[in-house]
């Protein structure tokens, strides 16, 4: 009995949510985060500037607290007003410098983060483009988007949310403790301990709570959802086989575990949240008691007593950002782990990109078996000299696209070999995927992708050859017309023809086209297929090898049929 739905095509792995385990099962580590941060290429000098600006920002708050305390206490003694003016001006200056330096700090940190994400994205794109093509082909589109989008953003934010705040908290703690030590070393020691506790215990607890929550979301909530869906989808069968009660119990148990985990996470979060105010209270009360005693003995002035009490309040501003930093560090560690999975899978990026001017050598297949995990067809032996016209047919899912990807050298075959080899195949061929991208730019730029040095006359001739001449004549700016929204600006048939024009323009000696007639009306579809398979049609140079995958039957006879399923 089928109790679980499988939505993916067989062979494709569903990624886990949250704490993403790599396919080989290993878990994210802090080393992953270090390697991930290296991708950001963080410049040392800019980072130091950002830390300086952020420290001055919070340092201004600290100094503001000290000067205000002094001012309050001094004003209490009602001195001549001129005694207070310097302090009053200092309070204003510190208030302004705080705002100014916060702005500079934001500019500097965001600059580092944004440059970092650009660097990481460039590395990832380059690796995907030039590394093992199977990595990008096997990943689902959503997965790639998440890695290149969200995960790299999370990694970039680590600069703003973790690295700079931790460095600033450390610096500020040193300054505050040092400043307080000038008045009372004992009060400074208490402040140091309180800062250490709130800077380590609270972040550790916050991170622990986040891990518990994530684990609950990954496992128990997933179990609950699966068990509930099984009951909802198969209640009748489960009742007949006596499995309904155990299935309901399973769902209830998973829900209980989810609730327990969430409660545990909430308790841990509550303790983490209480740690910082408790540390502040301990430090302030300690300072007050020490200060009162010192003041009573005449060892310090009233103004120093004020500073002793108010300074610790401001000293915790930097540490209070650390629990959030710890949670983000965990998130960035997981993102880094997923990214590195993709990068490592893609390899070192030393596979040559497709060069389209290689001479045609033809193809010689010896026992090729194509497939992702298991062979999709019996071994294929063939000799296709330059200029061959080959048609791969078969119903949906029989492996036509996979065969083309294999012959282009984009995914390795499960068995067999090919002349001119896989790198050679990549160099001499152009694969035109069914869903090849149309960019939201001009018609010209969309065509120049296939051959950068083509003239407007070449582009117009290619459009004419694929039946886009009339359409092009109606466009306001002809080749210069921008396709707003990319493929949304085109009908399905126009899109196919534009892709076909790319194939016509491309100088690659071997062309592999996946369903080139899709979305065309029935008569045009067969006409296009015939033109591709007929060497004399003039659509493609007679010396180019054209391999087409299609579920349609042409009216001309190709040089060879490859029948799949
Ligand atoms: N990226 C992938 N990763 C793993 N398996 C895949 C992948 N793409 C396709 N497959 C599997 O390979 C098999 C053949 O798929 P393929 O897309 O080659 O068939 P097709 O004949 O081109 O189908 P269609 O006519 O529907 O496009 C299917 O079982 C499919 O699930």
Description:
The chain is α/β, with parallel strands linked by helices and 565 residues long. Helix 5 runs antiparallel to helix 6. The strands form 2 sheets. It has a 5-stranded parallel sheet, with helices on both faces. Strands 2-1-4 form a 3-stranded antiparallel sheet, covered by helices on one side. It has helices at residues 30-39, 44-76, 82-130, 133-138, 141-181, 185-240, 244-296, 302-315, 322-346, 400-407, 421-428, 443-448, 456-465, 469-474, 492-505, 522-533, and strands spanning 363-369, 380-384, 389-393, 415-419, 429-432, 510-514, 545-549, 560-563. The radius of gyration is 34 Å and the shape is elongated. The chain is built from 16 helices and 8 strands. It folds into 2 domains: 30-346, ABC transporter transmembrane region fold (Up-down Bundle), CATH 1.20.1560; 363-563, 3-Layer(aba) Sandwich (Rossmann fold). The structure holds adenosine-5'-triphosphate. Adenosine-5'-triphosphate binds next to helix 4 and helix 10. InterPro entries: AAA+_ATPase, ABC1_TM_dom, ABC1_TM_sf, ABC_CydC/D, ABC_transporter-like_ATP-bd, ABC_transporter-like_CS, P-loop_NTPase, Type_1_exporter. Pfam families: ABC_tran.
**Beta-strand percentage range:** 5-15%
CATH topology of the largest domain: ABC transporter transmembrane region fold
Order of neighbouring strands in the sheet with most strands: 5-6-7-3-8
Extended strand count: 8
Domain ABC transporter: 358-564
Subcellular location: Cell inner membrane
Protein name: Thiol reductant ABC exporter subunit CydC
GO biological process, one term: glutathione transmembrane transport
């Amino acid at each position: 009995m089928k109790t679980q739905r499988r939505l993916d095509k067989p062979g494709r792995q569903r990624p886990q949510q949250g704490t993403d385990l790599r396919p080989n099962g290993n878990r994210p580590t802090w080393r992953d985060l270090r390697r991930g941060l290296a991708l950001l290429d963080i410049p040392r000098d800019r980072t130091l500037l950002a830390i300086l600006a952020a420290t001055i920002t919070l340092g201004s708050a600290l100094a503001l607290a000290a000067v205000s305390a002094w001012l309050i206490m001094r004003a209490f003694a009602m001195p001549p007003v001129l005694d207070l003016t310097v302090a009053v001006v200092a309070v204003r200056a510190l208030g302004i410098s705080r705002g100014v330096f916060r702005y500079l700090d934001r500019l500097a940190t965001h600059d580092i983060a944004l440059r970092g994400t650009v660097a990481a994205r460039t590395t990832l794109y380059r690796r995907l483009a030039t590394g093992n093509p199977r990595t990008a082909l096997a990943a689902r589109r959503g997965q790639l988007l998440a890695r290149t989008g969200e995960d790299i953003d999370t990694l970039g934010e680590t600069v703003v949310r973790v690295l700079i705040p931790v460095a600033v908290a450390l610096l500020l703690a040193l300054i505050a403790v040092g400043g307080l030590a000038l008045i009372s070393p004992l009060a400074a020691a208490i402040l140091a301990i309180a800062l250490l506790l709130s800077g380590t215990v609270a972040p550790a607890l916050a991170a622990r709570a986040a891990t518990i929550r994530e684990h609950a979301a990954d496992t128990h909530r997933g179990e609950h959802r699966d068990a509930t869906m099984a009951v909802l989808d198969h209640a009748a069968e489960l009742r007949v086989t006596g499995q309904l009660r155990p299935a309901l119990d399973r769902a209830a148990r998973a829900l209980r575990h989810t609730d327990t985990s969430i409660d545990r996470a909430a308790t841990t979060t509550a303790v983490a949240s209480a740690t910082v105010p408790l540390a502040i209270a301990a430090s302030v009360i300690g300072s007050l008691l020490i200060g009162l005693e010192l003041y009573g003995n005449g060892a310090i002035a009233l103004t120093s007593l004020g500073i002793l009490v108010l300074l610790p309040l401001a000293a915790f501003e930097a540490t209070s950002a650390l629990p959030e930093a710890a949670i983000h560090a965990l998130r960035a560690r997981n993102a880094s782990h997923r990214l590195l999975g993709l990068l490592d899978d893609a390899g070192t990026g030393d596979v040559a990109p497709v060069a389209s001017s290689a001479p045609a050598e033809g193809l010689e297949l010896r026992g090729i078996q194509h497939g992702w995990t298991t062979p999709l067809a019996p071994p294929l032996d063939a000799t296709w000299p330059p200029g061959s016209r080959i048609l791969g047919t078969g119903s949906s899912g029989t492996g036509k696209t996979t065969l083309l990807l294999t012959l282009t050298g984009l995914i390795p075959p499960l068995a067999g070999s090919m002349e001119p080899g896989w790198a050679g195949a990549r160099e001499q061929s152009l694969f035109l995927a069914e869903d090849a991208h149309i960019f939201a730019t001009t018609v010209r730029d969309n065509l120049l992708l296939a051959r950068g040095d083509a003239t407007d006359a070449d582009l117009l001739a290619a459009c004419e050859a694929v039946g886009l001449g009339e359409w092009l004549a109606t466009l306001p700016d002809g080749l210069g017309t921008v396709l707003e929204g990319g493929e949304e600006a085109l009908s399905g048939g126009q899109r196919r023809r534009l892709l076909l024009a790319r194939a016509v323009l491309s100088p690659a000696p071997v062309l592999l086209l996946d369903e080139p007639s899709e979305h065309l009306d029935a008569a045009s579809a067969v006409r296009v297929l015939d033109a591709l398979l007929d060497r004399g049609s003039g659509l493609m140079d007679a010396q180019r090898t054209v391999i087409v995958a299609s579920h349609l039957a042409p009216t001309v006879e190709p040089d060879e049929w490859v029948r799949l399923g």
